[in-house]
């Protein structure tokens, strides 16, 4: 049975030579960003899982871009919350003490970097990067709407008038290729180097902190048992229990933005 003792966890954390964090959408929930599988996880009548796929893109790239453009619109006035800040300051203290720290995130919203986190492994890409289908060039892009054709589009109401978009409405690269969101869709493989970095971070840490993820998406969810089987002390911070809970030595139920600032207020000894 996992412990819920904050002092016991903090006593372990202080001596930890290397920390790895795995974050999910719940880390950004208190920034006002809907999670995937909670309330608000739908856009019109689709879940992210319906539209974050190569099949959806091949069927209607304009609809997929309208979905991502809407998420970029939602993100535009959002910022880090105390969960992001607590993780960034933990990293700073551990780095200053020449100890290991890795933040592995499933999130694509960019809030960890905005909060000051440095050593970030983005498993599922970035909402703020786009990639050319022809030459593969990846560009940072914060233009909202993504092209003028998407002005006023994105209404999440299932009864909203669905505008049809043509190929000419989509963003295009200097080489003439169409640009897609630089994110990993369901059914797409992760960048092997990114997957290796995330796996090594899980295997080589003494503390593994899993925050705000439903732990149902692989290969990310597989990092939790991987960390445990390599000797890490595993702690989960989540509103609910998840499939990861069974692998945890410590479980703290509640909001990440409320728990993490106190839980992680530890100096390395
Ligand atoms: C791959 C980017 C193989 C896009 C995302 C069966 C059928 C089909 C496929 C599969 C299958 N079994 C496994 C698979 C593979 C599939 C998968 O895992 N499917 C699952 C759903 C069963 N995985 C893949 O397809 C991956 N690729 O396997 O490739 C392959 C290999 C080689 C060659 C070809 C193929 C790719 C997965 C990546 C998909 N892309 N995102 C986008 O964002 O649009 S995943 C998406 O879900 C997000 O990245 C998100 O981060 C991720 C996981 O969700 P969570 O972050 O956990 O968010 P969620 O809403 O679910 O949960 C929030 C949690 O927070 C909850 O627990 C809640 O309680 C908690 N919470 C809420 N508020 C708070 C809080 N906690 C604390 N404080 C709060 N305030
Ligand atoms: Zn190109």
Helices and strands in order:
Elements: H1 6-14, E1 18-23, E2 42-43, E3 46-47, H2 48-51, H3 54-59, H4 61-75, H5 82-96, E4 100-105, H6 111-115, E5 120-122, E6 125-132, E7 138-140, E8 179-183, H7 192-203, E9 207-211, H8 223-229, E10 233-238, E11 250-253, H9 256-263
Parallel strand pairs: 1-4, 1-9, 4-5, 9-10, 10-11
Antiparallel strand pairs: 2-3, 6-7, 6-8
Helix pairs in contact: 5-9, 7-8
Zinc ion is lined by residues 132, 134-135, 137, 173, 175, 177.
Q: What is the chain-wise order of helices and strands? A: HEEEHHHHEHEEEEHEHEEH
DSSP summary: helix tally: 9
Instruction: Compute the average pLDDT.
Output: 96
Q: How many extended strands?
A: 11
The portion of residues assigned to helices is 25-40%
Query: What low-confidence regions span 5 or more consecutive residues with pLDDT below 50?
Result: none
What is the SS-derived class?
A: alpha/beta
Query: Could you give the distance between the termini?
Result: 27 Å
Major sheet details:
6 strands, parallel
Q: Over all CA atoms, what is the radius of gyration?
A: 19 Å
* Order of strands in the sheet with most strands: 5-4-1-9-10-11
Into which percentage range does the β-strand content fall?
Answer: 15-25%
What is the chains' assembly state? single chain
Structure description:
The chain is α/β, with parallel strands linked by helices. The protein is built from nine helices and eleven strands. The protein has helices spanning 6-14, 48-51, 54-59, 61-75, 82-96, 111-115, 192-203, 223-229, 256-263, and strands spanning 18-23, 42-43, 46-47, 100-105, 120-122, 125-132, 138-140, 179-183, 207-211, 233-238, 250-253. The strands form three sheets. A six-stranded parallel β-sheet has the order 5-4-1-9-10-11, with helices on both faces. A three-stranded antiparallel β-sheet has the order 7-6-8, with helices on one face. Strands 2-3 form a two-stranded antiparallel sheet. A hairpin with a 2-residue loop joins strand 2 and strand 3. Helix 7 packs parallel to helix 8. The protein is elongated, with a radius of gyration of 19 Å. The structure holds ligand BV8 and zinc ion.
């Amino acid at each position: 049975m996992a412990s819920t003792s904050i002092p016991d966890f903090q006593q372990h954390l202080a001596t930890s030579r290397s920390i790895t964090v795995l974050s999910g959408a719940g880390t950004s929930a208190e920034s006002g960003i809907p999670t995937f599988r909670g309330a608000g996880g739908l856009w019109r009548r689709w879940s992210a899982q319906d539209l974050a796929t190569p099949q959806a893109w091949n069927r209607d790239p304009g609809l997929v871009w309208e979905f991502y453009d809407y998420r970029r619109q939602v993100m535009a006035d959002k910022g880090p919350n105390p969960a992001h800040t607590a993780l960034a300051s933990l990293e700073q203290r551990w780095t200053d003490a020449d100890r290991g720290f890795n933040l592995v995130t499933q999130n694509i919203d960019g809030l960890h970097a905005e909060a000051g986190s440095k050593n970030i492994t983005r498993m599922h890409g970035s909402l703020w990067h786009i990639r050319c289908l022809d030459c593969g060039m990846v560009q940072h892009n914060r233009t909202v709407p993504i092209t003028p054709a998407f002005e006023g589009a994105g209404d999440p109401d299932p009864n909203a008038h669905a505008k049809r978009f043509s190929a000419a409405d989509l963003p295009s690269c200097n080489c003439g290729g169409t640009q897609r969101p630089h994110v990993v869709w369901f059914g797409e493989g992760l960048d092997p180097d990114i997957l290796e970095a995330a796996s090594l971070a899980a295997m080589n840490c003494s503390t593994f902190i899993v925050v705000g993820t439903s732990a149902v998406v692989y290969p990310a969810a597989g990092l939790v048992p991987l960390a445990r089987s390599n000797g890490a002390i595993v702690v989960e911070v989540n509103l609910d229990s998840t499939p990861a809970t069974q692998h945890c030595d410590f479980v703290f139920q509640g909001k990440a933005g409320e728990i993490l600032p106190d839980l992680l207020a530890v100096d390395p000894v």
